[in-house]
Amino acid sequence: MPFWVGLPFCCIHGSITVDMLHQLFQGIIKYLLTWCLSLMTESELDQCLRTLPQYFGVHYFKNGWSKLMQVSGNERKQMVRVLLGCLVGKVPNNILTCYRALLGFLYLVQYPSHDEESLGYMETTLTLFHDHKDVLVTLGIRNHFNIPKFHSLLHYVKCIKRYGTTDNYNMEAFEYLHIDLAKEGWRASNPRNAMLKSHMHPAQYIDRVRTSMWYLQSCVV
Q1: What is the pTM of this model?
Q2: For the residues of 84-131, what is the DSSP string, one character each?
Q3: 3 within some domain
Q4: What is the residue range of 51's domain?
Q5: Residues 111 and 190 in one domain
Q6: Which is an annotated Pfam family here (predicted)?
Q7: 148 shares a domain with 55
């Protein structure tokens, strides 16, 4: 029996929020990039990326995307900025509409504040995608859209209304802690007893140092 069955006033489904990092950047965007390779070759896509003009604040992929081995969330964000420009003139207009709708939804989700108007924009862009997504099945790119990450898009508006903007529960903030609490600790230790030496001890030391700093600052004040 699940642990939450006997808990009063408990709705376990309400405790599960959407996850922008893994559902959108590492999920939806990954699907969009894979579908691109069904519409053009890797060399064509890389050539489109190389011919895009460089712009301040936008990463320039001088070698394209085919050479990337392990793509991070930040790199996915940079891909989103230039993806639509690579498809113009290369794919049917219905495909462009699908991609534009999903990318528009992705940017709307990241708003630092929302009102009924912005939430309405999110629902409109999502409806636009569903109205044109059948072209992907017609062209043989997809057989179906029974994909959990695409289903999760339906819950974003409801989740924002209930819990606030997505930056309150985005896993990206916690993933960044891997640098301090996992990677740096691992590099500073030997591989033996890795869990204890490279994860638990450094985290405890960091907490002690921060506590001491706060105490010293309070004494100075």
Answers
A1: 0.78
A2: HHHHTTTS-HHHHHHHHHHHHHHHHHT-SS--HHHHHHHHHHHHHHHH
A3: no
A4: 12-168
A5: no
A6: Plavaka
A7: yes
> Based on the domain organization, do 213 and 132 belong to the same domain?
no
User: Exposed e or buried b for every residue in 34-54, given b needs 16+ CB within 10 A?
Assistant: ebbeebbeeeebbebbeeeee
Q: Let me know: does 162 contact 14? Beta carbons within 8 Å.
A: yes
Whether residue 159 is found in the same domain as residue 194: no
Please give the average pLDDT of every successive group of 10 residues along the chain, which has 221 residues: 84 86 88 88 87 84 80 80 87 91 94 95 95 91 91 94 90 71 68 61 75 84 59
Instruction: Give the CA distances from residue 43 to residues 36, 85, 86, 87, 101, in Å, rounded to whole numbers and listed in that order.
Output: 12, 16, 12, 13, 26
Integer Cα distance of 108 and 20 in angstroms? 12
One domain, residues 93 and 123:
yes
Structural contact between residues 83 and 32, judged by C-beta atoms closer than 8 angstroms: yes
Question: Do 161 and 184 have their domain in common?
Answer: no
